[in-house]
Sequence to fold (524 residues):
Amino acid sequence: MKSAILLLAATATLSAQIDRLEGERIRPHVKFLSSDLLEGRGVGARGGQLATEYIAAQFAAAGLKPGGDNGTYFQRVPLRSVEVQPGGALTATAAGKTIQFRWLDDFVATSHTQEPTGDFSAEAVFVGHGIVAPEYQWNDYQGIDVKGKVVVLFTNEPPSDDPNFFKGKALTCYGRWTYKYEEAARQGAVAAIIIHTTPTASYGWQVLRANGRPQPQVRRAAGQPALTLAAWVTTDAGAQLLGLAGKTVEEMLEAANKRGFRATPLGKVRVQGKFGFNLHDIETANVVGIVPGSDPKLTSEAVIYSAHWDHLGIGEPVKGDAIYNGAIDNASGCGLLIEMARAWSSMEPKPLRSGWFVAVAAEESGLLGSRYFADHPPLPAAQIAANLNFDSFSPYGRVQDAVLTGADRTSFFPLVRSVAQRHGLTLKADSHPESGGYYRSDHYSFASTGIPAFSINMGSEYIGRPADYAKQMAQSEGSTYHQPSDQYKATWDFSGMEQFARFGLALGIEIGNLEKIPERVDSK
Fold:
């Protein structure tokens, strides 16, 4: 009877503390982090450094202990910036005909060799989706040697309705563009050109065009395979390239999707590249704050909350605006992270396990900061109970559904459902699993090492609004994803962010108080 009374009292106290989370506390963080002063929070830029200093100051003010290097809030993430110099040339030739591709209009690219120049002239080979997946008996490189050649391919993977073949409609790790480049390098290719289509990429060319800027990369290890050029071309440019071999985009994509596909040279097509690159080392950081747990033994274990602080910085002007502010993506997630950190720190009694709050760097460049943290964790990975990631929250009010990408892969999914139900949230499956959301956010860096991890995202069924309200807002606001128009507005409704901060905090507390640390996960 006494223990039941104590449990009820603890539950009531916890509920009261969670209710102290307020959307209007989140607002000023989002407003500041997405202001023009921070110039889009570019990695290695002044605005990015200001963002990390601001988040660290908020952690300190909330009473979090430093969890970074040498007693600071900063975990150093060593990167190298690679910028394509003006005047670089990418061409394709066959039978006396030459196509000159135009920077940004036809292609974007970077180099992974991290050398000041990159020159090549090589045979072009079409390799389908560029996948080597033994568990699905699929090898797009079988029977062909691409060493020193240029591989041409599509992103994504063969379409499937069979959960035992590339997991059905859900994209696997083999569909990610980063995997395509990595595999091409392992196969010895000198360059890789991905032909963009909106269905295979799940986003339009304007998203890639916005990436035509200096690209942060993890510093290359000696002897590590790397591409001289890693490029995307538009659908039209891809059609011109394939057209030199008498092929079309449609027929080559259809061929790539069929079991039994075999890579083939593109006739006598040769691709030439001549580029210069500006290189400089970047000192950036993950921001790490800790609230120690209340149990003497379990305090060495952790629930990790994460959100990426970076965006695209200053880039190509759109309607005269060159600052890619990133208010929704992801000043919003950082605002939730700071407010949850404050609430966890002020809690009494605190959860048994420690709460770690990590604002990670360079998500927009391929999850680099979270990958570095997962590969170099300040505590043993086996002691991380879970990672809850927060990325991009809509400012249009409260919803009645949530999408928790990857939660169903964890051993504590029933607990997740229970907490969601208590918060009036219905869990919905990802409506576009083919876009590969599971592999495109920072939780994947943790999951790939076996740590139970998933992203917490708002659904689209707004409370008190028409069923198509989310669609209405998307049409009225236009596409702001990776555009300068992703800016803070004073009219925004932060009640939905408050709702998900409360849900995320409650879920982390439940995980933090589990009797046993959750089982590891399979991230493929």
